[in-house]
Amino acid sequence: MGTGHPQEQKTTYREAMREALRDALRSDDRVFLMGEDVGRYGGCFGVSLGLLEEFGPERVRDTPLSESAFVGAGIGAALAGMRPVVEIMTVNFSLLALDQILNNAATLLHMSGGQLPVPLVIRMTTGAGRQLAAQHSHSLEGWYAHIPGIRVLAPATIEDARHMLAPALADPDPVLIFEHGSLYNASGELAPSTAPVDLDHAAIRRPGTDISLITYGGSLPKALAAADGLATDGISAEVIDLRTLRPLDDAAITSSVARTHRVVVIDEAWRTGSLAAEVSARIAERSLYELDAPVERVCSAEVPIPYARRLEEAALPQTADIVAAAHRAVD
Predict the structure, then answer these.
(1) Nearest to 7 by CA among 151, 171, 193
(2) CA-closest candidate to residue 188, choices 5, 15, 2, 3
(3) How far is residue 37's CA from residue 43's CA, in Å, rounded to a whole number?
(4) Tally of CA atoms within 13 A in the half-sphere of 155 that contains its CB
(5) C-alpha distances in angstroms, 290 versus 19, 42, 257, 285, 287?
(6) Which of 155, 183, 218, 300 shows the smallest number of beta carbons within 10 Å?
(7) For residue 186, what are the contacts with CB-CB under 8 A and spacing of at least 6?
(8) Contact of 105 with 150, CB cutoff 8 Å
(9) Which run of H or E residues covers position 195?
């Protein structure tokens, strides 16, 4: 006998992103995808594979190797009423378009007195852990989360990869989506729901009572694995997935701290001036007297990310580091 519930389907993070793009292209003629190698090659990470054949070169546009130019073209298209999705291959290349993102996309609505919205979505791969060395292993989401006028998303699950794009395209402000490279091959079950993700709220990925593990993006699987390890030691860890890095969900953070009274913030970016520092500061401002121990931070080492695998692993936050930080807070 059937249960009456829709059948879940096995898929990957990459395929979920592709289906989100396909759905957006099908449902709105104003939507188009542009970027380096998104067409015939199918995307550097295979996300747009097959979309050129399905939608044609007007809707899936390969661009020259000039991030400033094609991000600027995306801003212009958004100003003209289109809904562009711009893919920047990896986050380090976004620095070549930082002037466009910071000085144009983020400011035009404000500087025009509300007359010029920029409904632009920019997708890019972020993070380390794949032996791509110092120039292709950055985690710069915190830089962008510093900028007023944009929304910054970090889908960490297959569900968020599938369902964050639609509300991002509906946002009148520019939206940056950071996809951690280690997640593309992650597989799991995806319910055939069409409900868009609530972009304003963090998610409790695992409830707990003894300590809060607060993270986002590619560090979520490590935090969940750490929670499993801590459970064997009799420590109940709550795992918070921030999901949206700007604006941060302050209420979710403060309510979790009120439940557990101890916190570890996990952030693959460098510790100095990091998003982890911002979260820690907000906890100090809003929840200081709820804390039974200092806030712990687990971040990348203050070095350019090494190429050699063991050195790279040593530089990045690992599950064992999260477990050790939690024990320091609890014990």
Answers:
(1) 193
(2) 15
(3) 5
(4) 31
(5) 43, 49, 7, 11, 5
(6) 300
(7) 12, 13, 158, 221
(8) yes
(9) none
**DSSP state letter for 135:** G
C-alpha angle 200-203-204 in degrees, rounded to nearest 5: 150
Main-chain phi, psi angles of 235, to 5 degrees: -110, 125
Q: How far is CA 96 from CA 71, 88, 90, 123, 181, in A?
A: 10, 10, 11, 15, 20
What is the C-alpha to C-alpha distance for residues 111 and 108, in angstroms, rounded to an integer?
5
**DSSP letters spanning 85-107:** EEEEEEGGGGGGGHHIIIIIITT
Rounded to 5°, angle at Cα 26 from 182 and 14: 10
**Residue 58 buriedness (CB in 10 A; 0-12 / 13-18 / 19+):** exposed
Residue type, 156: A
- Encoding tokens for residue 252? 């979710």
Segment (H or E) for 255? helix 250-260
**19 carries an active-site annotation:** no
pTM score, two decimals?
0.95
* Cα gap 223→229, rounded to integer Å: 10
Asked about 261 being catalytic, the answer comes back as: no
- 205 closest CA partner among 168, 163, 238: 238
The single residue of 67, 87, 179, 296 carrying the catalytic annotation is 67
CB 244 within 8 A of CB 175: no
Task: Check: CB of residue 116 under 8 Å from CB of residue 76.
Answer: no
- Among candidate residues 15, 36, 87, 136, the one labeled active-site is 136
What is the mean pLDDT, run by run of 10 residues, along the chain of 331 residues?
61 96 97 97 95 97 96 98 97 97 97 96 96 95 97 97 96 96 95 80 98 98 98 98 98 98 98 97 97 98 97 98 98 91
Q: Are 262 and 210 in contact (CB under 8 A)?
A: yes
Beta bridge partners of 296: 264
Measured at the alpha carbon of residue 325, what is the angle toward residues 319 and 329, in degrees to the nearest 5? 145
